[in-house]
Amino acid sequence: MTEGEQCRELLARAPTLALITRGRRSGRPHRVLLWFAYREGTVYLMAHARAHGRGTDWYRNARAHPAVTVEAGGCRWTGRAEPLPEAMLPAVMQWFAEKYGSAAVRAWYEGTPRLPMQVILDR
Questions:
Q1: Residue 2, pLDDT above cutoff 90
Q2: Quick one: pLDDT band at residue 4, thresholds 50, 70, 90?
């Protein structure tokens, strides 16, 4: 198994990842630990929409500066963040439930508006 394959396997099993974005105003790096789902070279995330509907800081930073870094399992990737259509939210919720369990996902995610996002990892 190559190092890249080992890292992707570690990513798939990691409980959380660190997403590093660039501040939309400051330009400085910002790091946040997040739950995620991983499918075939793409990381799926869900941001809280917040009362204003524009999302959490990491989401707004990634929209302003889509080049992001992902760290998990001792490995690091660069990638491109892209918001997903709201129609993808049920699929992303299902992937989260498969990884973290339905009860945990209901407790953390149901009842609050969410904004799905994908990070397409560079090869």
A1: no
A2: confident
